Give the backbone structure.
Amino acid sequence: MPTREELTRKIQDEKQSQGLSWKTIAEAIGPGSPILYTAALLGQMTLTKAEAENAAKLLNLSETEAAMLTQPPYRGSQPMPPTDSLIYRFYELVQTYGTTWKVLIEEEFGDGIMSAIDFDMQIEREPNPKGDRVIISMSGKFLPYKRY
């Protein structure tokens, strides 16, 4: 049985050899979020059985590999701090603005956290004459800390 890392590599190889985009793959998997589907294929989220079967058909995966896509992964396997420059910029944003986000969220909502489980995200391109811009919108349910 392959490891999850080997399966991720196989998925990336199939994507490249077939000339597919993540968007095209997501459309073949189902009606859900392309971000969630991409995260699942990269080993960070799960797919339903039907979604995994659709992915397997497109990406030439075995039944065993499709089943692996439905199993809870070991999330957050990136080194800290991240070494990839694009990923590192997000780490830099948290280092710079994390305390600001914290106090502003607490001021608005109270003592708690923003869920990364009950969560939505969109990534968009905004044309700009000075260079296109990346828009990332994140929406997570507010979870107040409970007293007990």
Observations:
- The radius of gyration is 18 Å.
- The mean pLDDT is 95.
